[in-house]
Amino acid sequence: MIIDIFQMGTTVKIKKWGNNLGISIPQIIVTEMSLREGLYMNINENGKRIIIEPVTQNNPFNLTDMLNNISEINTHRAIETGEPVGNEIW
Hints:
This protein has 90 residues and is α+β, with helices and mostly antiparallel strands. The chain has helices at residues 5-8, 27-32, 63-68; strands spanning 15-17, 20-22, 41-46, 49-54. The longest helix has 6 residues, at 27-32.
């Protein structure tokens, strides 16, 4: 769902948050888009527009999903580094 904030007549003010700039998302958009704190968002620019979209997967760096995607195709062979030196246990 795309909500054009300009058609809604909503104006927001850019504020400084630490070393960044930020805007407050109006509650009507939060509700309509089912946004919540902690949700990952992609932010891009397109000409003179800023496009903010929810990431399709809440956490793009989910370890379980990454481990499940390991296959014969995307793994490398073992790398031999020589004989143990010191007190390593092999």
